[in-house]
Fold:
Amino acid sequence: MKIVYLHQYFEKEKGGIRSYEIAKKLVSEGHQVTMITGNDISSCEGITIISTKTPYRQEYGYIRRIFSFVIYMLKSLFYALREKDIDLVYATSTPLTVGLVGKWVAKIKKCAFVFEVRDLWPDVPIQLGIIKNNFLIKILYKIESDVYDKADKIIALSEGMKMDIVQKGIHPDKVEVITNFADISRFKSISIMDQIQLYTKYPQLQNRFISLYAGTIGFVNHIDYILKLARSTKNDEILYVIVGDGKEKPRLIREAKLAKLTNVLFLDAVSKAEAQTLVTMSDVGMCFVRDEEILNRNSQNKLFDFWAAGKPTLINYKGWQDKVMREFKAGQGFDYGNIDGLRLYLENLSMHKKKNTKKCSNVSVNWPSSIKKRIY
Structure:
């Protein structure tokens, strides 16, 4: 089967690599996959990649983002229509305009159309107050309804997202849930040498209790919550490490400096391999969002990475991920306003680690001399 896969932000080495893993899996099963993306990436792993070379960064303002969405929509439509013998077009949001391309290509090429809903657009930006123009809201809801109607199948990333889609009049049988995921074998293959390289690169991480956030630093991700947590933390051993890029990052760095938060470390975005190594070096993971009910349906990819690495995780929202985490004791969920409870939990974890470290201090390890120099 020949599949045209539409994903404006396709990545294979950093950030969310869900599409990369799905495309690889499809290729391994004998399908022909052509990925059309805005990023400038070379073909790999049997995936044919066509780039529209459409610049997009989280730091862009909303007008420039919309311009990027439109340019990608037009270019991806052009490239997709040039493809021959298409059996299926798979479009993954956001932006919602990708669904329009999928719908048009499927209609013209007379092929099946699958639409993957990664975020509930336009509900999320509307309910967060990002989109306020009533005329634009009507247009976006019309696009959403039309895309859902024309899709042969809709993929949601959580049961909560599926429920929201069904409540808009879509038949439940039309919607399938495929959550995010992580490759456990990747974390098992990370060696102590990989970790030592990052300890050498970022010496601030040495001998600290690492509470890690790795991902986009945007409005929804609400990194302000971590700064608030850092302000209330008195234990000097706890270090809040924030890895990634995004529109909110410059402001947050300024605020951390003004507040003289010596327990917060901002790092630039790293490759997926380095991000996974950092996860194995962390003591606890953080996945926070703003205090909005609609965000309870999300499916944060970074949460799966922490779980795959066997790291306890902290979240400040409800929903299915909170239930799963509690059921399998994979971390701790807190009410958004319970920042003191969250801090106490972290401090207790830090003290527990310190006690265990002291118990093991007399254990002799015969490190190679080259490694001893880096550690000690």
